[in-house]
């Protein structure tokens, strides 16, 4: 199988940054197009009437954080030659669903994502986006542990 389009899921966590580094490196090696996806998770939205934070302001803050993170990753890991195409995706919703939806719509050949490697109760209560994506993806998924 040839990987021509690699979708790399990112957020603001250190494990995500590590996964992005590995995914971008792989894309450069394979001369594959890169899709960076940062899902705007509405469940993390902060609305506080007492502080006059409206849903629109909160959404704007989340989008700004996503764009800053994505630009930081591109700046840190983009090749100097700039020959690789980078597409940016900022869907809103649940990360596990939006990663799969974007991979399908963009026709990705591979999904790359970092993982915290939680086990036990932390995994039970918080779940694992990476695990869900691995179980439900119709294409290969490369999961990068935080401590590699």
Automatic annotation (TrEMBL):
It comes from the Bacteria. One of its GO terms (cellular component) is cytoplasm. It is found in: Cytoplasm. Residues 3-145 form the UspA domain. SUPFAM superfamilies: Adenine nucleotide alpha hydrolases-like. Keywords: Cytoplasm. Pfam families: Usp (PF00582). Belongs to the universal stress protein A family. This is Universal stress protein. It comes from Arachidicoccus soli. The lineage of its organism: Bacteria, Pseudomonadati, Bacteroidota, Chitinophagia, Chitinophagales.
């Amino acid at each position: 199988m040839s990987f021509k389009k690699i979708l790399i899921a990112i957020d603001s966590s250190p494990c995500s940054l590590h996964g992005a580094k590995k995914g971008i490196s792989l894309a450069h090696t394979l001369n594959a197009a890169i899709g960076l996806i940062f899902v705007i998770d509405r469940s993390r939205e902060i609305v506080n009437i007492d502080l006059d934070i409206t849903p629109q302001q909160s959404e704007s803050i989340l989008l700004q954080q996503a764009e800053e993170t994505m630009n930081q990753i591109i700046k840190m890991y983009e090749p100097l030659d700039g020959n690789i195409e980078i597409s940016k995706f900022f869907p809103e919703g649940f990360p596990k669903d939006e990663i799969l939806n974007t991979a399908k719509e963009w026709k990705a050949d591979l999904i790359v994502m970092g993982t915290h490697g939680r086990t036990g109760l932390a995994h039970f209560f918080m779940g694992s986006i990476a695990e869900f994506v691995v179980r439900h993806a119709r294409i290969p998924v490369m999961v990068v542990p935080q401590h590699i």
